[in-house]
Amino acid sequence: MFKLPSFTALFLCGIIGLISFMGATIWGMDHFYGTTTKALVDVMTFVRLLGLFISVMAPLLMLLKLFRKADNHMQG
Q1: Which helix or strand (DSSP H or E) is residue 41 part of?
Q2: Could you tell me which residues come within 8 angstroms of residue 31 by beta carbon, excluding any fewer than 6 positions away?
Q3: Which of 4, 14, 25, 37 has fewest C-beta within 10 Å?
Q4: pLDDT digits (tens, 9 = 90+) for 29-72
Q5: Secondary structure of residue 35 in the 3-state scheme
Q6: What's this model's pTM, rounded to 2 decimal places?
Q7: Total Cβ atoms within 10 A of residue 43
Q8: So where does this one cross the membrane (predicted)?
Q9: Are 57 and 11 in contact (CB under 8 A)?
Q10: What pLDDT, in 10s, does the model give residues 15-25?
Q11: Is the separation of the CB atoms in 66 and 19 below 8 Å?
Q12: What sign does the CA torsion over 59, 64, 67, 68 have?
């Protein structure tokens, strides 16, 4: 089995993912006003998807780590 990172690292990854998602979303709003190039919008779309993926996966990995720790504790 692979070793999961610590809870602190996963929590920070979740926060960073959420910040990158929100930042890219706000930055991408400029495209509707015609001040952003198409390439930058494509990059921001990628950053949004990556940030969303990280901010969803980090809490799931935290739960996995918690369940794995509880399982190891129950097995003694």
Answers
A1: helix 38-75
A2: 40, 41
A3: 37
A4: 766 666 667 777 788 888 889 989 998 999 998 898 888 888 88
A5: coil
A6: 0.72
A7: 14
A8: 7-29, 49-67
A9: no
A10: 998 888 888 87
A11: no
A12: negative
* Residue pointed to by tokens 């979740």: 14
Sequence spans of domains, the chain: 18-75
CA-based radius of gyration for the chain: 17
Of the candidates 6, 3, 13, 1, the residue with the CA atom closest to the CA atom of residue 58: 13
Contacts within 8 Å (CB) and 24+ apart, 53-59: 53/17, 54/13, 54/14, 54/16, 54/17, 54/20, 55/14, 55/17, 55/18, 55/21, 56/17, 58/10, 58/11, 58/13, 58/14, 58/17, 59/10, 59/14
Q: Are residues 17 and 58 in contact, defined by beta-carbon separation less than 8 angstroms?
A: yes
Q: Rounded distance, CA 63 to CA 48, Å?
A: 23
Using the Cα atoms of residue 46, residue 51, residue 54 and residue 59 in order, give the sign of their dihedral. negative
